[in-house]
Structure formats: C-alpha cells, structure tokens
C-alpha cells in the first residue's frame, strides 16, 4: 500500500489530567445500514475489552437491509456498569442523513468525528470537531474498489485509537479474532487503521477529553451475545431437535446452534450428526415439529419472537394439555403485530405466560445475563422433561443480540433430568400404568416413548378430553380431575423453577422488583439512589410461576417499584393478580420506547415516586 | 382380473400376533362410514404383513378421519394433533426416531384446506411414512360444509351449490415431488389393501387419497363422493397384486400386459394394465392423466405415480446418523466439560 506521510503542524493542546474522562464515557457510531460498520465497531469494542476495560456494545438498527440510519453505542465503564448510558460523549458521524440529530444528541463538551467531505453544518459550539480524510486514506490504502465502502469504517477505528488511546496491538488482535486468523482480511483492514493512526498523529492538534487506559477488570471474562449463549447452553442441555422459522431478533440464536452443533454433536465413529435442525415453512410448523420430537423422546426446541409466538398459540395449548416436553425461546421485540421488529422490549411476558386458548399457564424462565442464557439453555430441558410441559425462555433483543461481558459459563452442575419415562423393563416391573395417573402426588404423570417394545407401552395422545388412562372422555368429573392434576403439577413447578435473586439493603424502605435485561440498569440505579439517600432492596425474578420468595419480598416493603420494559407494566399486572392483598403497594415503572432501560430513567422514576 | 390363489388367513402372523392385536377401540363414527372400512383394511394389512405394532406411530389432525387412529392398532402409540398440522408433528417424531413406522390419517378438510401448506412441505421433505387422506368432500363434524376437494356443481343440504373447482390432492402431491401417490375408493377393499401394502413397503412418503363416502352428509344420489357413484364410476388404471419379498411371484401375466414395480424392501407390486399404456413411473404422464380425469369427470383409481430410485428421505437430507435421536444416552447428548472449555477459550 501507499504510505502517506503527513507533516505535523503543531503539538496537541494539553488537557489537565483531572479534566480528562478516563474509561467512563459512551461512544456512538452513526452509519447508514448495510455499510459494513459491524466489523469496525466490534473491533473497537473488543480492543477496549482486551485492554481490561468493562465495555458493552449495543446495535441500534432499523428493519432495513441497506440505507436507513443505524447506530452502534459502546459504553466504557470503569465501575463495570453494563446498562445503556443516556449520555453520548463521543460521536462518529458517518451518516449524513442523521448528522443533525446525532450532533444534537451529544453532551456538551463531547467530540464529533466526521468524514471531511461531509457538507454538514457544524451547528454546535460546545463540541470539538475532528474531520477525517476518509476517502483519501481509503484510496491510498490500495484496497479493491468493491471493498472500499466497507473498509472506510476502519478510518474511524484508527482515528479513535489515536484520540482515545486504544492500543493498536489490541486492535490487531481484535481483527485477528473477528476474521478467525484470515491474514489477508486482517492485513487490508490494519493497513487502513495504521494509515489513519499515522494521519491522526501527524495532523490532530487537539487532545481528546475522553481517554481509555488499561485496567484489569476484564481478566478472565468472556464476551458474547445472549443468543449465542442461549444456543451454547441448549447444546450443553443436549438439544437434539431444532425446528425454526427466521424472525428477528431470534434468528441468530439458531445461527449459533448451527455453528456449535456440527462442532459438538457429531458421532465420531460415523462422522454424522446426532441432531437435526429443520427450517420449517412457518412458526405453526416449527412448534408442531418440536412437539412431535419431544413426544418421540428428543430434547427439542425452537426460537422465535412475538409474531411467531402468537402463531404458536394453538399448538402451545396442545403441548400443555397432552403434556409434551419442549422448549421455546422467545427473543422479545416491540409489538403488537410487526411493531418495531429491530427494537427491544419485554412485550410478551403476559402473552407467553398464558399462551393459548382454554385454561393454560406455562413455566417461563427470565434470563438477565448471557450467563443465565447459558444456564437456562440447559436447565429449560430438565424442567420441560421433569414437568412434561412446554417451557418458555423469555429473552429480548437487547440481551440476545448485543455484546455483553461475563464470567465464563459454568458447566451444568446437575446431571440431566429426563423425567418420568417408563421403558420396556419398567413397564414389566410396574405391571399396570396409565398415562395421566398421578402416582406420586406431584401432578406429574409417567409417559412412554413411541417405539417402546412392550405390549402395554402404547397410549393415544389427544388434545380432546382424556381421562387418566388417556382414553377419550367428555365426563365432567374426569375433565375436572385432569385439570386439578395439572394445577398440582403447576404447584410442583413453582417449587423447582429458578428462585429470584434478592439484593437486600440495610435500612431499605422500598423494594424494586424486576427481571430480564433490566438488571444492569437497576444495579446502577441502586447506587444512584443510595447517593440520593434512598435505600432500596432489589429482587430479580427469574421464573414464572412466582416462587414463595417473591410473595415474601412484596410483603416486606410498603412500596414495591416494579420495573418493566413494556407499556402496560406486565410484571406489575402479574404481581397484582398473584397477590391481590398486596396490590396496593405495587407501583408500575414501565417504559416502552424500543430502547434498553437506563439507570437514569429508573433512578428518576423511583425518586419521583418517593418525592 | 388376475387373482392369487385364495388361502385361508393364518391365525397368527410372522410375529406371532393374532389379528385382534391389531385392532383399536370401537369406532364412534356413523355406521357405514367409509373411514371405518379403511381402518379395517389397515388392521388386516398390518396383520398380514407382520408389521411390528410397537414400532408404529399413528398420526392425525382434526376431523372425522383424524379420529380413526384410535380405532386401529391399539398397541401402537398415536398422536391426534391439531387441525391441518399433523404433518409437522409427524415430521418431528419421525426425524427423532427413524425406526418408527409412520402411519398418518387425515381428511380432505384437514389436508386440502388448513393443512395444504404443511401437506406440500411434508411431500417436499419426503418424510418416510404412509399418509392416508380419507376424502369425502364434506365437513362432517361441523354438519355439512363443502371441503376443497368437492367437485363443481355438487349440492349439499347445508351448503347449497359448490361453484369452486376442486383441489386434486394427488396432483398436488406429484407436483410437490411425492414419490408414491395413489387414489382409491373405500368401496374397493381389495385395491385399498394392495395399495396399503405397497405404501408400507415404500421408502419415503406414500400418499393415499382414498375416496371415503360420508354416509350422513354426502352419500346422496347425485354426489360424486357417494358409494353408489364410486361403485358405478370407478375406473381402475390397473389390477394390483402385492407380492412380499419372501414370496414367489405366481401371478400370470403376458409380457407388456403388466408392469412389475420393485419396492425398496424387496417386495413387488404387479400392475396388470387395464388402461393401455398407463405407466405410473412417468411423472408427466401421471399428471396429464389426472388432468384428463378432471376434465372428463372420470374417477380413476390405482397407483398413479411411483418412483423407487434415488428417493432421498428427510433422514438422508439431514445426513442423520443411523442411531435414532430418541435413543441417545446422556453422554451422547451433553458434550464434555473440556468441550465447553474449548468453546469458551475463543471468547476471552
């Protein structure tokens, strides 16, 4: 490539160290969708992570393939906060279409990097501007013309590296990981990064008030998105059958299964897969297939989002009533209908809990971190097979599609629980059995798998009324007896689903209750509230139905702020329904704007309530 | 018509089972329903062929026909699922346990309307099983609406005149890539039995569209799905004889008069031509014959299309291991801790 030397005109102006923000700011990169900025953004994120700085990356993207504005926000937090930050300090304005709004969103004192051929009005005087010769540097890099648009983004990586102090060696290491060691791709990207760093060193005369400095806070940590974590957990839960239909934001969960399964689930002797992944014709078929597979003895799952969940409603009732184990991941997005398909929200809590017609209620797991996505990945199968029922795992776009740092995942701590299955030997031993008899008093019956070589193994699975021996019935007493047993089974579920995590605070006068991906915002908000002399205890619910700890927590404080990322305050509604005698103390704090919650919003909402 | 020598039925079959062990619960359908006759054929064919009942998985959707799996093969697992979406349940089960013998029963409402999408995709995936459509042109359980297979000009007490063209499920199956497609008539038990035997010997999905009169709502004189109409108008494309792999071929036929079709399991169906030049191995010819039948209002029955070579089933398409997924041990299901560590190593 052509190396261009730039003459240094003057030394950068010094900023006093106490005025420099170190490792505690947010970068926002604005690009047109489809311009290939993902590599550049991941590189910055990973390089900061490699430097030991706690970071999170969030992709705010439109439902569009090419052209509409998209943003990537990177938060660096020396204190380890992972929630979305309401402030934007460093703007990389690569998209002329959103330039004006992007500039307005910057905090006073922020900095703005933009391509020097941009003809945008630099309307704010409280912002420092850094024009970058993007076209020139890319042209000089000698990269193939067809790749120029993509590689252009590496210019801001290089300029940011210089301005913020991101180590170039860590950028190279990040690219190495991103391109899985493919030297040609790494080299052509690094050429542009190096050229941009050289240009910036030679030409930028103003020092940035935002800097990164090496820390040791990511030592031993991993970085991944929740969908990949859920997929990996499912693989370690023994998933054997997957049926699915593409829908944002759940698609990458199945993509990750398709990455991990060929690596981890091949029969070494025959070199053939011991799993099946079927792309179904729609969600109606996807759920039908996993029910068939669960019935026949596979650990089966699908992944979907709101509209797909609605399509699965009828079959969900069948799985509930015929008592077939299977797992549905619902990576939630904005609804109703198509809604805002690429924006996050906890919009399906109530619909998933009661999905289908008739009297149905389901076990729902509520992961809040990638570590829990992994854990609930395997645990969901144990619960589904133990309880012989459909189990939902409710993640969301923010958790599922964004990058999070975490302690490494723990290998499953318990042996697989395949539940109450009678094989031919067991059938001979028990002599007499009935598919829906409550032998153990826990509401959970025994089942047999098709293909069991025994004259007594067979039973007829039907969604119509059935008695305890799986025979057709329309008798009221048999119908009621069956529903009574299902209710007993649900009470058993209440005792074995994951219990909530409670953070008790000395002298706490109020409680905050929430779930899922709201956790990082609340953790941070607790610190802000404490600074404002509000001591709050915090409980994070991890599953439905509520376990006894939830009722105890709600009963303990006079005011319980229930934080939801949906419009109606769905968790608050469920709590009021479950604990009507305590309903008066439940205060819904709900937001539904398509974005992950911020600590500031949670803090202010609680402060308003306490005022 | 070619006939095999009538031999008295043995009391027990190859597996040592009596025919009674292939029966199901008593039917609750209307007396004389075509579907009950098909259930009886299933019982006798499975008994005769020595099908292992414990390995059979029965599937159905919703409707009169879909109730019938309760009325045959009581020693086999069955799954009466939701309307039109049995194909997906069957797909999941058969992919999970490839040793299962899938036996599915649907109806013209279940398959031809709500289930059309799943039917076409089942065909496309070639899920190995027998799929019977008990086709009577009418919705019975909801008291007499037209189904999508009803002929133009048909009249029903409840629904009046049908002016919509019928869907031909055999043509749909062939276009979709099915490798075994047959049409028959519940009032022709001999042919139904021969086709069922052939279907059970087929490697891949076998579609049987059996006109099965509804005695309550659609058996009147001018109905094209009535017993009387079927008896009078059935045009067999060929006479069929099924010969098991172990048996000697004793059927007499002249060269050119009959086509022997070798099935994947070694059995043979001998198709003695009744209609000159009908070749059920020719896909285009099969489609033209169906189209001509539609045009001329002919009720043709027999093995309409069959393909025995290079049938890739869903198990082949997924490159699956021979060991059924349902038989995997905990060790095979859960990768080791070392495997997790190695995946995590890339994420630091």
From TrEMBL, chain B:
Residues 62-210 form the Thiamine pyrophosphate enzyme TPP-binding domain. GO terms for biological process: cellular respiration. It comes from Herpetosiphon geysericola. The keyword Coiled coil does not apply. The keyword Endoplasmic reticulum does not apply. This is 2-oxoglutarate ferredoxin oxidoreductase subunit beta. One of its GO terms (molecular function) is thiamine pyrophosphate binding. CDD domains: TPP_OGFOR.
């Amino acid at each position: 490539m052509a190396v261009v030397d730039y003459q240094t005109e003057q030394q950068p102006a010094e900023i006093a160290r106490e005025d420099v923000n170190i490792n505690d700011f947010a970068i926002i990169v604005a690009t047109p969708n489809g311009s290939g900025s993902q590599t550049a953004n991941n590189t910055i994120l990973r390089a900061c992570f490699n430097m030991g700085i706690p970071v999170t990356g969030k992709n705010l993207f439109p439902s569009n393939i090419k052209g509409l504005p998209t943003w990537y926000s990177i938060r660096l937090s020396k204190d380890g906060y992972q929630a979305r930050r309401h402030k934007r300090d460093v703007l990389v304005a690569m998209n002329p279409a959103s330039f004006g709004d992007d500039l307005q969103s910057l905090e006073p004192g922020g900095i703005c990097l933009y391509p020097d051929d941009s003809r945008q009005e630099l309307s704010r005087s409280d912002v420092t501007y850094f024009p970058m010769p993007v076209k020139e540097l890319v042209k000089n890099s000698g990269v193939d013309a067809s790749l120029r648009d993509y590689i252009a983004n590496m210019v801001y990586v290089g300029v940011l590296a210089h301005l913020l102090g991101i180590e170039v060696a860590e950028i190279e290491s990040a690219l190495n990981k991103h391109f899985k060691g493919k030297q040609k791709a790494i080299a052509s990207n690094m050429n542009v990064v190096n050229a941009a760093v050289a240009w910036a060193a030679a030409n930028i005369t103003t020092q940035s008030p935002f800097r990164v400095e090496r820390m040791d806070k990511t030592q031993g940590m991993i970085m991944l998105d929740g969908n990949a974590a859920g997929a990996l957990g499912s693989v370690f839960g023994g998933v054997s059958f997957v049926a699915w239909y593409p829908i944002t934001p759940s698609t990458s969960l199945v993509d990750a299964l398709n990455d991990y399964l060929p690596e981890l689930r091949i029969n070494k002797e025959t070199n053939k897969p011991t799993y099946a992944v079927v792309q179904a014709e729609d969600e109606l078929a996807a759920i039908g297939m996993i029910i068939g597979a669960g019935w026949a003895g596979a650990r089966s799952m699908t992944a979907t989002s709101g509209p797909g969940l609605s399509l699965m409603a009828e079959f969900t009732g069948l799985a509930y009533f015929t008592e077939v184990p299977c797992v549905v991941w619902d990576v939630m997005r904005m609804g109703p209908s198509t809604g805002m398909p690429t924006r996050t929200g906890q919009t399906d809590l109530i619909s998933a809990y009661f999905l289908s017609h008739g009297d149905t209620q389901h076990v729902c797991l509520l992961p809040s971190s990638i570590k829990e996505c992994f854990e609930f990945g395997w645990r969901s199968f144990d619960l589904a097979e133990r309880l012989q029922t459909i189990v939902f795992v409710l993640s969301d776009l923010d958790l599922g599609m964004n990058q999070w740092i975490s302690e490494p995942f723990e290998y499953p701590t318990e042996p697989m629980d395949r539940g109450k299955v009678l094989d031919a030997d067991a059938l001979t031993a028990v002599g007499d059995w009935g598919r829906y008899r409550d032998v153990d008093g826990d509401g959970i019956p025994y089942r047999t798998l098709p293909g069991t070589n025994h004259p007594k193994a067979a039973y007829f699975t039907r969604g119509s009324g059935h008695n305890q021996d799986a025979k057709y019935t329309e008798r009221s007493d048999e119908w009621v007896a069956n529903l009574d047993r299902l209710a007993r089974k649900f009470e058993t579920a209440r005792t074995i689903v994951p219990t909530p995590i409670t953070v008790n605070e000395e002298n706490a006068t109020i409680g905050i209750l929430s779930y899922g991906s709201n956790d990082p915002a609340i953790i941070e908000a607790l610190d802000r509230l404490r600074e404002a002399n509000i001591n709050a205890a915090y409980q994070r619910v991890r599953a439905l139905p509520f376990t006894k700890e939830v009722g105890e927590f709600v009963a303990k404080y006079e005011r319980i702020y229930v934080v939801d990322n949906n419009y109606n305050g769905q968790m608050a509604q469920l709590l009021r329904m479950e604990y009507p005698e305590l309903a008066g103390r439940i205060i819904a704090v709900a937001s539904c704007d398509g974005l992950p919650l911020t600590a500031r919003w949670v803090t202010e909402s609680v402060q308003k309530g306490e005022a | 018509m070619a006939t095999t020598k009538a031999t008295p039925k043995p009391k027990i079959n190859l597996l040592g089972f009596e025919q009674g062990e292939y029966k199901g619960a008593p039917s609750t359908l209307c007396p004389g329903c075509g579907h009950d006759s098909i259930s009886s054929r299933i019982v006798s064919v499975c008994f005769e062929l020595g099908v292992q009942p414990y390995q059979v998985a029965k599937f159905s959707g919703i409707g009169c026909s879909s109730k019938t799996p309760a009325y045959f093969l009581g020693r086999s697992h069955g799954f009466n699922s939701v309307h039109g979406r049995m194909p997906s349940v069957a797909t999941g089960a058969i992919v999970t346990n490839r040793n299962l013998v899938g036996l599915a029963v649907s109806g013209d409402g279940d398959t031809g309307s709500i289930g059309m999408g799943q039917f076409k995709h089942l065909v496309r995936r070639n899920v190995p099983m027998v799929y019977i459509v008990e086709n009577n042109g009418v919705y019975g359980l909801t008291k007499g609406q037209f189904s999508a297979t009803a002929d133009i000009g048909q009249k029903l007490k409840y629904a009046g005149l049908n002016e919509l063209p019928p869907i031909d499920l055999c043509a749909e199956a062939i276009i979709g890539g099915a490798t075994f497609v047959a049409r028959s008539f519940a009032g022709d038990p001999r042919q139904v039995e021969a086709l069922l035997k052939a279907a059970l010997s087929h490697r891949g999905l076998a579609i049987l569209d059996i006109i099965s009169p509804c005695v309550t709502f659609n058996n009147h004189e001018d109905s094209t799905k009535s017993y009387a109409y079927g008896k009078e108008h059935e045009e067999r494309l060929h006479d069929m004889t099924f010969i098991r792999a172990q048996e000697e071929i004793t059927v007499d036929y002249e060269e050119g008069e009959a086509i022997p079709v070798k099935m994947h399991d070694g059995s043979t169906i001998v198709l003695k031509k009744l209609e000159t030049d009908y070749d059920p191995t020719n896909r285009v010819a099969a489609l033209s014959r169906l189209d001509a039948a539609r045009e001329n209002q002919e009720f043709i029955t027999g093995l309409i299309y069959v393909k025995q070579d290079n049938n890739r089933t869903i198990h082949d398409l997924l490159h699956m291991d021979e060991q059924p997924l349902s038989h995997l041990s905990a060790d095979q299901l859960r990768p080791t801790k070392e495997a997790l560590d190695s995946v995590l190593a890339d994420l630091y």
